[in-house]
Amino acid sequence: MNKTLRAVWAFIDERFQIQALAGFAKKKSVPEHKHSFWYFFGGICLFLTALQIVTGILLLLYYTPSVDGAHESVQFIMSQVKFGWLIRSVHSWSANILIGALFIHMFSTFFLKAYRAPRELTWVTGFFLFVIFLAIGFSGYLLPWNELSYFATRVGTDIAGSLPIIGKSLKTFILGGSIVGQATLTRFFWLHVAILPLAAGILIGLHVLLVQILGMSTPLSLKGKPVREIPFFPDFIYKDVLGWVMILILVGVLCVFLPWEIGKKADPFAATPLGIKPEWYFTFMFTTLKLIPSHIFSIEGEKLAILGFMLGGALWLLVPFLNRRASRELPSPAFTVAGAIIFAYIVVMTILTYTLHGL
Amino acid sequence: MNRRKFVNYFLGGSLGATVLAFLYPVLRYLLPPGQAEVLQKRVAAAKVGDLVPNSFRIFKFGASPGILVNTQDGQLLALSAVCTHLTCTVRYEGDSGTLYCPCHNGRFDLAGNVISGPPPAPLETYKVEVVGDDIFVSKKA
Amino acid sequence: MKIPAALILSFLLLSGALLAQKNSCVECHGKLDDELKAPVEGFKLDVHQQFGLGCQDCHGGNPALDDEDKAKDKTFKGAPKRAQVPEFCARCHSDSAYIKTFNPRLRVDQLDLYKTSRHGELLKKGDTKVAVCTDCHGVHGIQTAKHPRSSTFPWNIPQTCGRCHADANFMKAYKIPTDQLGEYKQSVHAQALYEKKDLSAPACNSCHGNHGAAPPEVKSIAFVCRQCHPSAGELFSKSPHKKAFDEMGFSECDACHGKHKILRPTDDMLGTGGGAVCVQCHEPGSKPFVAAGRMKELLAGFGSEIEANQSLLDRAERKGVEVSDPKYRLQEIHTLLVSVRNLTHALDLADIEQKVGEGKSLLVGVRASGEAALREAKLRRTGLVVATVLLILFAFAFYLKIRQMKNRPKA
Fold it and tell me: Whole-model pTM above 0.90?
């Protein structure tokens, strides 16, 4: 058995020249310390993305992106296709877990200041990946064409349309017209299965390449102290896989006991259901818009909030360049505090969405 | 067998079994299911010849009943059979050429319009196509 | 001196406009209080005002004049006395040529109908306590019956009639019951009207008439109910009850369902049990008694089997299996149950047996689907256990491998 494997390896290596790569991989090492637990989240995001791609490709086989057929095809997948309920539920559950993991990955790298020089571009590519994945989530949510997804899309695109200057044309571009209809469904499908995954793929490639080239960042608090290193292959990758297996078990349990609902087919003429809200990962912004007073210093409160978020996003993107102290390998408590406030804000706003009366 | 070899076999074996356990559902998924036609957009309501003139049949359209009528002069019409008053199922009355709801005496014409009784709104009409031997009913655009 | 024509014209128009707006009735009464001011306030929303009519069209007088005595000229009628109100309103409302100019479809027979009603009869005899036009329609601020604020809008009618008919003190002299409104409010018709906002649901006038209001005679009650429930009526007419009821002078629907407190019929109304209506007449052991018992058995059995299947499908759905198709079929079977329950009016036991049999055989298919769904749910859980066990084994194997890697001599 071993002899055959060695022969296959030699055959491939002669043609693809993998030895050099294998050599690099063997030398790759990962620091192990009290904060190294957070290193796993990058790999978790990658694993869940792969899961999404696989289940997504399988769903493509039976899904139809038309207003007459979308809801029915999802119903068909859930009831008639063998294991369709499983594939679809895995896709829906993993999507939410993935976004949760992205949040954790993003905040852990923020607090560990992993973005400091020379890893600024890793942060930048990561930021754009975050935005892309939120867009993938938003576009995917419409595809089952049920009541909740239709109205959540209406609310979301209305907010985009309220942006100053570019709002109206942006909304028309997103919707493919003036209303949420067939054009929107086609467009969201195009984004969800082609454009956004392509963009994500390119950025993931850059992001992972940078991590390979630059190695894992060690937190400032451990500077100067000797840090144990473990080889990536096979030690770290095995631990990685262990984590993935745990997540897979979790997803399995969720899908069997809480399969994703099909919902009522969207009816554009129906009244908006009470308490309509977007997916949980957008709710902190949604609730901010709901709670903000209608006017602040004669500027519309909602517009101010949206601009605030955009500004916040821009600052978040530029953190590696703004945090001068970190790039000089100095502690920067101001940024830690700012990050903690932002994190707390997101958590509190998300919880309020589901607990506050009348939202 | 030494410890190392055992661990390797254990690993390989459990990996193989897990992969198979995951591959099985995926392969079953790829095989086409029994009922190939997914859409309720277009339903084969009946076969030509099932309905004599001046009769009707109730068929399943999506999640609710539809009514297929063969009128006195042999015209095929299809509408939603759900009465807009309190959702009873309507029927076709040959003598009057109207759709009648037995629950509270509601009456509709063959275009779905309310003629008399409590229904507050007309019945939705559907498109009928005869393809070969089958009568297909689909929603209008 | 030539005065420009335009100037003269505008002067005429202006004065014409000013004169046209002059309404001394409104001006004076608007300055008074309470009862005397009320007509001004109320009339603002009145349907007569919307048709361009004013105070003088009903009460006479000349509103163009400021002086009170001069304004109340010889055409002035003032406020009519209660006994005169019907004739007062009918001056226009029974004049078809006049009403036609405002609303060609408006009826003009209200006064004639009123004269045939109990209210009209008693008024003729001199009883002014009875309802006249203004008691139901209001005085100044009358709305059409299509307007939700109108006291004659369907869901306001019970309250309008109830103002007198539910007042025990007021009705003492007439020696008729005053519990109708209370009973009606408990009925399924009231529920439809008030809760479901179904305007086709009957209120007092649907069965008693509007202007010709009178209690329907015994044999009329059935005709009244058949307006909306023809199938029950037709079936009843085919049953042996029809002849019997007619001979005994029982009213058809009222005998079992009541008049005002018509509740949603339940299976308990059938058969031989406590709440059954059949035992009101039929002796234990008699043929009808036995038939009633059998009918109840069939219906109750069918009903509970449908319920059992419903909970079976609900259970499967809760476990995550998609059961929309059997649910649709069950819904159709439920429709069959509703029609079978209606069949009890015909008292045709054979027919009921046959239909129930039909339903039960359809239920077999639903039960099969439901049980298959539960099996699918079980299968999923088993599959999960298998997959989880394999994953745990795999994870354990990994753990051993990691430990092994850690403990190997460094390369």
Answer: no
